[in-house]
UniProtKB/TrEMBL annotation:
GO terms for molecular function: oxidoreductase activity. Keywords: Oxidoreductase. InterPro entries: NAD(P)-bd_dom_sf (IPR036291), SDR_fam (IPR002347). This is Uncharacterized protein. The keyword Chaperone does not apply. PANTHER family: PHOSPHATIDYLINOSITOL-GLYCAN BIOSYNTHESIS CLASS F PROTEIN, PHOSPHATIDYLINOSITOL-GLYCAN BIOSYNTHESIS CLASS F PROTEIN-RELATED. It holds the Pfam family adh_short. It comes from the Eukaryota. The lineage of its organism: Eukaryota, Fungi, Dikarya, Ascomycota, Pezizomycotina. Gene3D superfamilies: NAD(P)-binding Rossmann-like Domain (3.40.50.720). Coiled coil: none annotated. It comes from Staphylotrichum tortipilum.
Length: 336
């Protein structure tokens, strides 16, 4: 049962938390930021460059917008970092596969994967790869990418004796979803037609949290309790960005008013993503809310949530095997 008063207080507490400017060095590190051409992704990529990363890959669905972002970062940060724009469209499994194969072949290390790209839409007719578009982009493709990049991240950890970090950007919106599909016999199948669109974005973010928790547990279980690959989720809070561009007019006015009163700039929001990406072992499997490990929604923490998590994980692994046979073995295999 969603308690609006408690949720409102939770939102305010998190939103009013101040976020320190990131200062951890990334010297010598290689980083991928998806959706890096604008909003929080662009600002996070700018921080990584400023903090000395050797190689920063801007993974963008529009190369043109990616190149503009690269020029913008280079102007604000004259640094020796190699900034590259690589195409990645999370609405296409072929694009995700091509991106990950390229990373596996061309990168000698991958220290941070900031899975930031996502979309928000209320349009039930927009489909991609047979699923409603947000489910494809925000969930299925995101974890196809994570699992395909795991061997490279495990190799990086083993070769340089470092922890590597996957941060999946979640949202406070996951608190507000009833997740009506959880009662269906096949959860992902029920996302094929668009329904309950008012809570769809929040549901995709809830799924991200459930899957990231399960993945982190499994990685730890396969590494004597201490996987060198850290997987966490990050909530940047309400921020000014283009995320709400497809929301209907009145909705946009409402969001714009909230952002005006309480919102962070994209740069401030990106600090929350940086905090999670730098969080280390204490953030393994955790929800990092505005820079601090915090509790996700009651559903995630409940017995029912843990059962749903198992079902979601099982269904997702079947889907991912259908897209890229053998990819699920990457969770348990050691560094290749
Ligand atoms: N802004 C907020 O208040 C807020 C709050 C909580 C969580 N978040 C999360 O923060 C993250 C960043 O969002 P933002 O606020 O910075 O929004 P944004 O400005 O809309 O940025 C989203 C990024 O994702 C990219 N993207 C969208 N669909 C894609 C696809 N199919 N393939 C590849 N890239 C795609 C966008 O590329 P294009 O420019 O080509 O569309 C853009 O670069 C998201 O995960 C969002 O859910 C935001």
């Amino acid at each position: 049962m969603i308690n609006p008063f408690a949720l409102g207080l939770h939102f305010l507490r998190s939103q009013l938390r101040s976020l320190a400017v990131p200062s951890t060095s990334y010297a010598g590190r290689t980083v991928i930021v998806t959706g890096a051409n604008g909003g929080l992704g662009l600002e996070a990529a700018r921080h990584f460059v400023r903090l000395g990363a050797a190689r920063v890959i801007l993974a963008c669905r529009s190369t043109e917008r990616g190149e503009a972002a690269k020029a913008d970062i280079e102007t604000s940060n004259p640094s020796p970092a190699v900034i590259e724009v690589w195409p990645l469209d999370l609405c296409s499994f072929d694009s995700v596969r091509a991106f990950c194969c390229r990373a596996d072949q061309e990168l000698d290390r991958l220290d941070v994967l900031l899975a930031n790209a996502a979309m928000l839409s209320l349009d039930s007719t927009k489909m991609a790869e047979g699923y409603e578009m947000q489910v494809t982009a925000n969930v299925i493709s995101n974890f196809l990418m994570v699992l395909m990049l795991l061997p490279l991240m495990k190799r990086t950890a083993a070769r340089w004796n470092v922890e590597t970090n996957v941060t999946v950007v979640a949202s406070e919106a996951h608190f507000f979803t009833r997740f009506v599909q959880k009662d269906q016999p096949q959860i992902f199948e029920s996302f094929r037609p668009g329904s309950a669109m008012e809570e769809r974005y929040g549901t995709t973010k809830l799924l991200d949290i459930l899957i990231a928790e399960e993945l982190a547990e499994r990685l730890d279980a396969g590494s004597a309790g201490a996987s060198p690959v850290i997987v966490n989720t990050a909530n940047p809070g309400l921020c000014k960005s283009s995320l709400f561009r497809d929301v209907f007019f009145i909705g946009r006015i409402l969001v714009a008013s909230m952002v005006f009163l309480l919102g962070r700039t994209s740069e401030e929001g990106s600090r929350a993503l940086m905090a999670a990406a730098t969080g280390g072992r204490e953030t393994q499997g955790k929800y990092v809310d505005s820079g601090k490990v915090d509790s996700p929604s009651q559903l995630v923490q409940s017995k029912e949530g843990r059962e749903v998590r198992q079902r979601v994980w099982g269904e997702l692994m079947t889907i991912l095997e259908g897209i890229e046979p053998g990819v699920t073995l990457n969770v348990n295999q050691g560094p290749a």
